[in-house]
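New here. Your pick:
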Amino acid sequence: MSDCNTRIIAPSVLASDWGKVGEEVRRADEAGADWLHLDVMDGHFVENISFGPQFVGAVRPHTELTLDVHLMITRPDKYLPMFIKAGADRITVHVEADHDVSATLKSIREAGLRCGLALNPATPFEDVVPYLDQIDLLLVMTVVPGFGGQSFMEKETMPKVAAAKEFREANGLAYHIEVDGGIDQETVKIAGENGANVMVAGTSLYGKPDMKSAIEEMRG
């Protein structure tokens, strides 16, 4: 596992031009991205519908970057095999979803992938504590998932990021702390100061004509 204090920039493919996804994936790759983040939404767990395993499979041949797949779906356990087969490197599931969290994390790991756990802004940090010794990554959502263009929810989410870092250090664990939602060249600093090291960003990277300099600025 890469060092959980190293900053990792993960452009969100959700914000790319899907009509030319191969080019958009290569653009992020050439701009110096570390991972690619893929947000899967089922229209049930969240209000929005994005894409499924076929889309992940369509991205895979265009890059050797880590595919960081975030399942915002009600039954992640049921659909795991499809995303594993599609070429995901990491799969993150929600603590709020309808599944046996430990069993799902174990299935991801047994398939040879890295596993992550996500929590929404309204979910208390205590809800993920029982699983923190079973994960490679904790994703703290910094907006309410499913709706684009929201502002970074600093007050509600940064205490959780700080608590996750404190818990990791107190217990000798090594999970990454990822943030997703409203991350740009300014909010990345706040997230980093609180202990996040994986920065998922959509329009603040894909929306810039020069993605390379946008990534470098975000890297600090």
